[in-house]
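thread: overnight batch results

M.L. [08:02]
morning all. the overnight job finished for the chain we discussed friday. pasting input first so we're all looking at the same thing
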Amino acid sequence: MSETIRVFVNAGTVDLPAGSDVGSALRAFDPELDRQVGCGAAYVTDGRGIELSSDAPLAGGAILRVVIRSRKGTTTDADA
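M.L. [08:03]
and the structure it wrote out:
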């Protein structure tokens, strides 16, 4: 019997094999969200608001929030 961990993604939960990463959680929860993160249209934060990469390892009880960017590729120039 393999160990599983429960991870919270947005308003839902997924059960994953121990040792899974952020990308695995997104694919299990909603493959479209994983695609959006992959192309830069969204990003993932932990429960504290710190941005995570898709290959970041997860522990049981991790809280992930997927944030959709309002405009992909826009930057703010502080000198403008």
